[in-house]
RNA sequence: GCCGGGAUGGCGGAAUCGGUAGACGCGGCGGUCUCAAAAACCGUUGGGGGCAACCUCGUGCGGGUUCGACUCCCGCUCCCGGCACCA
């Protein structure tokens, strides 16, 4: 008998069947031409490691949930997937396992990863799959490089760069964390002076900063991190005359208002004027200082906190406001790479200058005083801008802001300075000296110089043989595309962040053989409506992608200024206190989950475990609550007759009310990413349904509505079990069904709890209509024995009444 | 050091335009079923007091505002994340 057969819920018996059905029916295929409103849902494409855990699956479950939910709400959903498949881990793994090729390792991982996604029921439009290491993808990455090159945004320059001695390649600034390599937390990055490729991201600094205002649906902290990373400051460049020389010394300061307090100057060790400024008497000491600082890594320079070092050059500059002669020092607390590499030091109003002046006995002169006239502490710098000028000649008495403008204007009219801005952001170093990346499509010709590879010769494919490109002459020896003479291919590859900076565009037109994408299709689908991924990409990937979007907008290929409309950053999953990973021995694999509790229970649990933006601790027994919930749902939907009637008095209107309250709650929670409370609401509904049956409730239309609604609301989280139930109670696929419609009338309560307080303390609860008028409420409250006792013959001096919530009698 | 986020039962967490603190779940306890156990199901579960109706304390700590504070304000402690000589 059919009923007997389906009395038990066995996830392994139904899950593969529905996974096949969804694929056969093309459930997640996105149509470019559709009557429906588009919704571009994207999860960050992963680097395909071999052993994904349920921790990794968390954001794919979130993405799948949103995609399924939006489809049911009537959107044409684009929900694609791909692989960030270039990069060093593949090379390192290949090296470790002998003669394995990075490509083979990567492609095997992709297969395994994809299988695990599929077995937990995650659907994508696989027709649009993108693989960064495939020639038909990196061909277009190279195409985009050449676009940047033509637009003057890619350049080659000798520069001191960050070098990771383990990976044997350079790193972008963004990939250096406190002086350590981002991939090896115990490996110090070295400084090397090399010729490298850069992207002029600093040209876009203002737009990258200003357009953050277009992103109200990004997490505040990500916006803040980007803002700080770009680090725009407004200041003034000032030329300080040098004593006894014609040329000046240019400095950058954000505090020109403190110029009367500038009692010395400091040059960075790299400053070009340093050798010519150094006097004979100081030369030996300066040489020794430079020698010492050159051998220091960044981390060592940073660790000199609490003890700044420096040497006087013997030269002097003239303070243009006070006409004083002030000494010029060299110190490595001034960076050669920021501003002009030289500063005016105002020890009274800058902590670093203060510390330096204290150490070397240089004069400290206060020129700003708190506006309130308070005395300032003598043992530290007064750095507030809320003050007025003192000891500042004709400017004395002005506020800091007024003085900034006045001095700026004065210097500009004299031609000795100008107001300007600076950024912390540096140009993006994109070249890497390894094998497993997209080759930079440039040819070095001894006669023609840097020659871009013609577009019709793309892609410049990687040689089949796995070895550093610069070691493979048979690959890099070529002919110049312009003059035909002997030439050499660029042997650097591109940073993998290049691949991920535009993949979301390729998804809109993944099969295009003529161009990276058709602008019309890209503009149809873009921007990404919902982007979900880890916070670890808050700066790097998201900043680079925004940069690409803007460059392509300038090139006329895109119309939107920003690629990602709404961003969600999910937390990590830990187990036994550490981030879940196969290598740490604390991972739970998708296979284990599917074979144990089933994909649906795992998905529901991942959503229920905690707020999705928080890190959460996986609990092996915590999941049982979700398993029980699914079993209960199964029994309610398919075998309600097995639930024992233990009382009478079922209320059909109450059930219907609960159903509609749940529709509203779950819909709002899905929209607002409160998946944990959505699960709780569905559990509540199933509890109410169970009580309804236990109280002898009938199983007519109201009951059916509750089963259908619960199935639809649960489907995005637990698609297999709901699909199986739907095949018994509904038409077509549950995945294709429409989202339930909320009925406000059905959801409204005729009677609500009214809390009665006496002096702010809860004394009783009354069942009353929600809009009960105050006099009636007061009358009922005063009739309550508990209230009579608490009032103790006193009269209410005051009554606070909030209809539908509480009445508070204040004696 | 600076910026941001947080602290609620045994545990994960709900509830923040100020209005029943602890939804939902885990675990615990008691029970049904069973030869027994598991599973499932039912009941119960913040602390203290009381036979009970009830009373009382309780959202990191100390103050304050309010009829009423997990929620707002002031001052702390601790935890997490980001940045860290950017002039």
Report on this model:
By secondary structure, the protein is α+β, with helices and mostly antiparallel strands. It is built from 28 helices and 35 strands. Helix 22 (652-671) packs antiparallel against helix 23. The longest helix has 20 residues, at 652-671. It starts with a helix and ends with a strand. The model is unreliable at 1-6 (pLDDT under 50). The chain binds one RNA strand of 87 nucleotides through helix 8, strand 12, strand 16, helix 12 and strand 31.
Instruction: Give the proportion of residues in helices.
Output: 25-40%
What is the C-alpha radius of gyration, as a whole number of Å? Answer: 34 Å
- Assign the structural class, choosing from mainly alpha, mainly beta, alpha/beta, alpha+beta, or little secondary structure: alpha+beta
Query: Which segments are poorly predicted (pLDDT under 50) over 5 or more consecutive residues?
Result: 1-6
- How many individual helices? 28
Between the first and last Cα atoms, what is the distance in angstroms?
68 Å
Mean pLDDT: 90
| Strand count | 35
| Spatial order of the strands forming the largest sheet | 2-1-27-28
Main pleated sheet:
4 strands, parallel
Domain Aminoacyl-tRNA synthetase class Ia: 425-618
Domain Leucyl-tRNA synthetase editing: 227-411
Enzyme class: ligase
Binding site for ATP: 582
